[in-house]
Amino acid sequence: MTRSADRGTTAVVISDLHLAAGRHDPFSDDLALAAFLDALARRAAAGARLRLVLLGDTLDFALVEHDGRRLDPTVPGALARLERIAGAHSDVFAALARAAGAGVAIDIVPGNHDLELLAPAVLDVLRGLLTGRGGSVTLHPWMLHLPGVAYLEHGQQHHDINRVPRLLEAGAGEQLPLPAGTIYGEHLLALNDLFGADIPIERLCARSMLAAARRHPARLARAVRPSLAAVRNLARCQRAARTALRAAAPSNAYASARCLPRETVGALQHATASTPAGAVRRRLLGRRAHEPYMVGGARSAYDLLAAAGQAVPFYVFAHTHVADDRPLTSNPAGPRYLNAGTWSRLAPHGARRCSYVELRCDGAPTAKLLCWLTDPRCTPNRG
Fold first, then answer.
1. Kind of pairing, strands 49-54 and 324-327?
2. What whole-number distance in Å separates Cα of residue 50 and Cα of residue 102?
3. Burial per residue of 53-76, b for 16 or more beta-carbon CB atoms within 10 angstroms, e otherwise
4. Pick the residue with more confidence: 216 or 371?
5. How far apart are CA 157 and CA 77, in angstroms?
6. Are strands 105-108 and 49-54 parallel, antiparallel or unpaired?
7. Chain centroid to CA 326: how far?
8. How many CB atoms lie within 10 A of CB 12?
9. Which of 162, 169, 183, 314 could form a disulfide with 112 if both were Cys (CB 3.0 to 4.6 A apart)?
């Protein structure tokens, strides 16, 4: 159940930590993040009413190897990977538990890299890790709506190749869905291993793989079988996406829990409708958006909420790894788009890291994009 934006509460939003384990783990600022979380715990202990929003891709299950493979959409596979992640980042998990124990309420919105948290068994284990000293952990499968203050999403539903078909049903089956982007990323990692390129995860892309193939042409034949397997998996994603486009709108229960009309939630779901084949066509034809796609997604959310009389001043997203704060309309005093960015090495070259968004819900709501570590491109805040 989604809690309302209680008067006097401050929501602190971080995203895209991509905590993983092993050789492809892109997160290394454990001590800085633990210090940030401990600062929140001190504020809560001093009487501040805080909620920490983990806005997706907090964990990166797809980058954790177990039993010789990375992708495993089963619940047992997810539990094994969660154990490895918690062990690799014990300082962060301990600091999260201290914050929860001090009274910081934790809200989790899964992203496309930690959809495993939609499985009740996986969420229960994570809750146990974070609330050993007491505290509250609430899961929001898709969005978090703070009435009168903010609308928050991870944002993968606005990214054609990472959109999750039938997201609201994702945790109900024995296997979790794999977005097309996850399958593509795993294929790049497999080729990286095959060519012995050892390209860092933050530089892994189709161009770097082509360069590696040119350096090792004798190994190209060995890449045929995994490439065909990836194509078959992507085709399954395409079929699932087509089925999802014909799916009914979300249930009344899901809509009412988020204080939004059922029709609005349904419209939000269909506004993000896309398929992997559509994504490929757009890229092959060279069609580029006139603005960052996440800003366009936020504007769609604003338009739909405004039509329902539920507009809020702030629309907070993640997923792009680019921290941002800009007007969402031509009115600079109107609604704003904010992005919490990433704390991982997956930030684009030149983008700020260790950023977060702070929403104050008392009186006239305010929002600030801040940085925990000193960065000349945003306001530093060392707690």
1. unpaired
2. 10
3. bbbbbbbbbbbbbbeeebbbbebe
4. 371
5. 24
6. parallel
7. 20
8. 22
9. 162
pLDDT band at 306 (very low <50, low <70, confident <90, very high): very high
So what's the pLDDT on residue 376? 44
* CATH 3.60.21 fits domain 9-380: yes
Comparing CA positions, the residue from 218, 172, 180 lying closest to residue 71 is 180
Please, which residues have CB within 8 angstroms of residue 278's CB and are 6 or more apart in sequence? 160
CB 335 within 8 A of CB 329: yes
| pLDDT given at position 279 | 53
Does residue 125 have a pLDDT over 80?
A: yes
**369: three-class secondary structure by DSSP:** strand
Domain positions in the chain are: 9-380
Residue 179 sits at φ, ψ, to 5 deg, of -60, 155
- Is residue 150 within 8 Å of residue 367, measured between CB atoms? yes
Q: What is the structure's pLDDT at 160? A: 76
Q: Dihedral sign for Cα 327, 351, 12, 293, please.
A: positive
| For the ranges 13-17, 176-180, 294-298, 327-331, the one whose mean pLDDT is highest | 13-17
Structure tokens at 364: 């006239």
The Cα–Cα gap between 206 and 204 comes to 7
pLDDT, tens digit, 9 for 90 and up, residues 149-191: 999 999 988 887 788 876 776 666 667 777 777 877 777 777 7
Calculate Rg over the CA atoms of the chain.
20
CB crowding 215-249: b at 16 or more within 10 Å, else e: eeeeeeeebeeeeeebeebbeebbebbeebeeeeb
Q: Cα angle at 183 between 181 and 186, to 5 degrees?
A: 110
